[in-house]
From TrEMBL:
Residues 77-100 have a biased composition (Polar residues). SMART domains: FN3, IG, IGc2. Residues 44-130, 480-581, 884-976, 1089-1178 form the Ig-like domain. Residues 450-468 have a biased composition (Basic and acidic residues). Keywords: Cytoplasm, Immunoglobulin domain, Repeat. GO terms for cellular component: M band. Residues 686-782, 787-884, 981-1074 form the Fibronectin type-III domain. This is Immunoglobulin like and fibronectin type III domain containing 1, tandem duplicate 4. GO terms for biological process: sarcomere organization. PROSITE patterns: FN3 (PS50853), IG_LIKE (PS50835).
Amino acid sequence: KMFRRSVVTDGTATGQVGIKKKSKVPGVMITQFIEPLPEGMSHPDFTRKPIALTIQEGKFAFFKAIVTGDPTPTVTWSRNNGDVSDTSRYQTKYDPTSNEHTFEMPNVMPDQADTYKCFAINEYGQAIVTVILNIIEVGYKKNKAPQPAAEATNGNFKNVLKRRSKILPKSEQSERKDGEIDPKFWELLLSAEKKDYERICAEFGVTDFRWMLKKLNEKKKEREEEQAEFVRNISNLKPIQVNADGTASFEVDMDLIDPSSSIFLYKDGVMVPYTKELGDKIKHNLKQVGKKYIFSMKDLMPDDAGLYQLDVEDVNMFSTDFKIPMVDFLVKIQEVKAIEREDAVFECVLSNPFSKILWFGKNLPLEQGEKYDIQVSEDKLIHRLVVKDCMVVDKGIYSACAGIKSCNAWLVVEADKEAPKGKKSARKTTRAGGSGMDLQKVAQEQQVKLVKEREERKEQIQIAKEEAAAAPPPETPPAPAPTKTPAEPEAPKDPEPKPGITCGLSDIYCHRGQPAELAVTMNIECEGTWFKDGEQLNSAAGINITKDGTSHKLTIQTCKDNDSGVYRFVSGDQSTQGKVTVGGVPEFDPDDLHKFSKPVIIRVGQNAAFKMPFPPQESLVVSWFKDCTEIKDGGGVKIVREPNHSRLLLRDCLRTDAGEIKIQLKNPFGSVEATSKLIVLDRPGPPEGPVETAESTSSIIEIKWNPPKDDGGSAVTNYVIERQQAGQCLWTKLGDVSADRTSFRDRNVMHGKKYNYRIYAENPEGLSDTLETADSIMAGIMILSGPPGAPQVVSASKTCIKLTWTPPEDDRGVPIIGYQLEKRKKDTNQWIALNAVNEPIEDVKYAVKDVTEGTEYEFRVSAINESGPGDLSPPSAMVCAKNPNMRPCFKNPEDFIVVRAGISARVKICYEAEPPPEITWLKDNEPISPWINIINTEGMSQLVIPSSKRSDSAIYTIIAKNSVGEASFDIEVRVTDEPKSPGPVELEQTVHGKVLVSWAPSPDQELDDRLFYMVSQHDSNTRVWKTIADRLLTNTYTANNILPGIEYHFRIYAKNDMGLSDPSQSPTWGVNSNRGRLSKSTEVCFERPPSILVPLKVHTPPKGYQLYMTCAVRGCPTPTVSWYLNGICINSDNNYYITNSFGVCSMYIMRVRPNDSGEYRVVAVNSLGKAECSTKLIVKGKAFDRRVGI
């Protein structure tokens, strides 16, 4: 399929677009209204989205979200099928500290189960996320799922019956008949491994294994068909077990066909509320990691034991039985300090025999093996873990778990100081650790105690059976005989009324040690009898029975515990009864009360815990209060109620959580309270403002403030004061003052300067936020300078107007720092400052460059002192930003230009003139040729000869003329080329020691009047060419100091502005020319062709390094050496410094560049032959300031 970006119209205004964007948080839908977004702005997004919640009816439900966006988004909540405007059921909160938006539903009800939406909206877009709330009704059972109930209302009862579980809650289980198997047996077998079949059968009393296996295969086939509707595969079923961190968990791998399928958890047939991510809020948690589902529960209690089942929709996937043995640690494991290569021993003693406990090391389960030895005593009370051959890596926390009880201790492994350095120490035979007690004695005493308890229980059972067999059936207390009265004559009209009770008994609670009274009122005066628990009562010690007319009273003078019971009054066939309960107001132990009353002091973000023990009582209601408001369980509050104590845990406390914490115990006899205090320490709040100026002089500023409303839970120790001079960015600390002072005197101020101050409050937790002054405070009184003189125009051009002015006549006693200049365009009313007050013009003149050509301006100026800018000067005269009329003049022109023939010649002349002049070019006072280009721009004129020739050499004249005058300038352009070599060279000796060198002129001598000659000399002693004459305009030269016996050679070069010609070589002068020929038998010849003695080497220097490249060459006559890079001669390239010293040829590169890479070749040539060698240079890496010498 093809998908296109969708454009939505919901939530967008006219002219806006709606572009779907992707959030980093899955499940968040983002719509952007504007494209592109302005710089620094962003659409809303969720960094933490609300999490789906399954919770029991009546609990506290909430969703939390954190959103981002600039500007800050507005967050709202809604639900699909209902309204959330009822503030008694829905509450929206925002915590600016954590940036959390909370949607709370206290005392959640089933009708609030729905899909909820959270909206985050700003002007650039909106973000939406949905979350589901599931409500478990009170008393909700596994056979009462919501969907079947809905189907039953439509008349389809088959699905309802299908969803009923075979495991019913204990309250709904009927008494099983003889031979009937508990359905729990089959559920456990379906999820168990084969090795556990025998144990499960023994537990449920099943002995026919063949029948069991046959029946089990049938049930497995049926169950697999049911599971195939919802899962593709199910594996790795791990039964529930206790972990090292005190939690219990079981695991299963499921590949769901529909990932949105509902998953239910049950314990003994009752649905268990759980959460998927908020594990710290609810006891049970279901976590999904890929295809693995992990169910865990924390805060384990004995009543957590039972059968746990995991269902997908209406099909059971896994069942596991969690058994919690009644066992505790009599002796806990202790910390062990061992030396390397020594064994460490952890020991413990249990209160009841236990075949195997779980051992953990650094949160990992430990098993019997080469590293660990797990031992159990015969009576199964003593358990021991031996860590063999301890190494430093073995140190950590080790724990023992028995049922839901656990204990832990550290293993500290110290290095063996006696071990030889660099060698492993020898294995030690000693053991470290142990409990330090006689565990055998403790175990024997516990064994005796257990045997005694078993015997006592047997005796009690036997006595109970005998009493039950001998006890007669209960008798009903006889009714009192009616009192006979003498016969009286019957009244013919008024028959005798029958006795009746007008005011009967009711249940009452009596305080122990206090009197109690039971009263019955009859309609006529008659006799009556009192009974307690079926036994007749008479007036006796402690009990008084009285009769006053129709009123019958029973008075208990001092109530005792044995006075509790059911009291009954009988008169004739009339009776009434009531229950009397004797007790007392709950009490706290004085030591516990004293301990509880001590304040709990924590820091912000920490948890606060309160615990209060009390004697176990019936009908006891425990309530917790904070500042007289009752605290309910849920959210960040957890309340635990045990028979003999209660605990309160407040998570992630804020400063607002500080206050009075009270626990109330209430029963029918009264209530008692214990009070404590929660102190949450934090940084103090900012000092209270505003900051007042108590005094301001030229040398002192005194400020005052008020203490902070919130001291952060601990007293403010001092205040920190900082100062900033107005117009600057730097804040400077001035000092501290003690907490009892709320004022500060700043003595380091300058008159007229303005200052800002900020104050911090400090306590042991840190510094508060700042309190800043609303306005700057000036030191002393503001004294402004008088007006300077009106600005005068010195000069004006199209780019700059120069002004000057005079200082104020009256500076009013305060030194002037500088000036502020303002400008105004003609026909406008707005004055624009050319410099800021904190950047004053220090001189009385200024060049205004921010002008527009042709625009008229006027200017004014004010003097600035410590108090600020003073009175303004009168405005200047209007001045126009344009250049003044001036005669043309040329700026730094060149009068001679040399150009190589064949390339373009460019003559550039800059000038100044107003108004712009008319430009004319002449060649030798004649108009220039049409193919010569003239380019005129503002202030500059160029003459361009596209392809110059020698005939273009001439004197070119530029003429600039305007209404003011004219100017001209001559430029000589010489088009030339490298000269040709001079003619043959002749040598003649006229005087001893001198040789006349003459040569024929170069062919270019007549064409180039700037051509001259250069003479170089070479002798057989030095073997180096040196220049002996230069800039010769003649064709002869006399060489001096010519010595006999030495050979001399001369070279003649023609030279002009383009460079040197090739040389003309002279004949040899010296030994061979002056001496006769030797016979062949005596001739010695030194001539030889060039050869390479030391070749070049390959170099790979980094970029930026210096490089030397050398080789050695010999030959006679001395060869001419040339260097080539990639076939191009580089002898005349200034980037390479090349020398030849007696045959050692060197090339130096000061800083190697990438384009220096390539093949370098040295060629040595003389009249007898040629020799050459080559190498490669590779430039690599970064540049470093290093040298490479070769």
